Amino acid sequence: MDDAFVKRIQGDPNYVHLVSARRLFAWTLSAIVLAVYYGYIALVAFIPDVIAIKVAGSITVGIVLGVAIIVLSIVLTGVYVARANARYDALTRAIVNANLIGGKR
């Protein structure tokens, strides 16, 4: 790729929107996951009695929360994929199509 081609893509309004929207959404999802993970670790560190409460048989609150964290991570991955398929792929196609014909829109 030559520099002119790269600069043309970087100057495309769709590209600018794609980069900023994807970055904001990724950071938001990352913050959610980090808050949940660190919250769980904080519970283990500072209030271990809560984690040790038995829910049913030998299943404790800690196990339930651990599974919930895994499920949340899978769900958030699905949310990102759905958003990428619905919004980001269309923007990417628009960027590619606009720049394949020499930057004419």
Description of the molecule:
This protein is mainly alpha-helical and 105 residues long. The chain has one domain. It contains 4 helices and 2 strands, in the order αααββα. The protein has helices spanning 3-11, 13-46, 48-51, 61-100, and strands at 54-56, 59-60. It has a two-stranded antiparallel sheet with strand order 1-2. Helix 2 packs antiparallel against helix 4. The longest helix is centred in the C-terminal third of the chain and has 40 residues, at 61-100. The chain starts with a helix and ends in a 5-residue tail after the last helix.
Looking across the biggest beta sheet, what order are the strands in?
Answer: 1-2
Main sheet makeup = 2 strands, antiparallel
Protein structure class: mainly alpha
Number of strands: 2
Helix run count: 4
- Identify low-pLDDT runs: none
Question: What does this entry show, briefly?
Answer:
This protein has 105 residues and is mainly alpha-helical.
Annotate the secondary structure layout.
Elements (H helix, E strand, L loop, with lengths): L2 H9 L1 H34 L1 H4 L2 E3 L2 E2 H40 L5
Antiparallel strand pairs: 1-2
Helix pairs in contact: 2-4
Overview features:
105 residues; mainly alpha; two-stranded antiparallel sheet; 2 strands; 5% strand
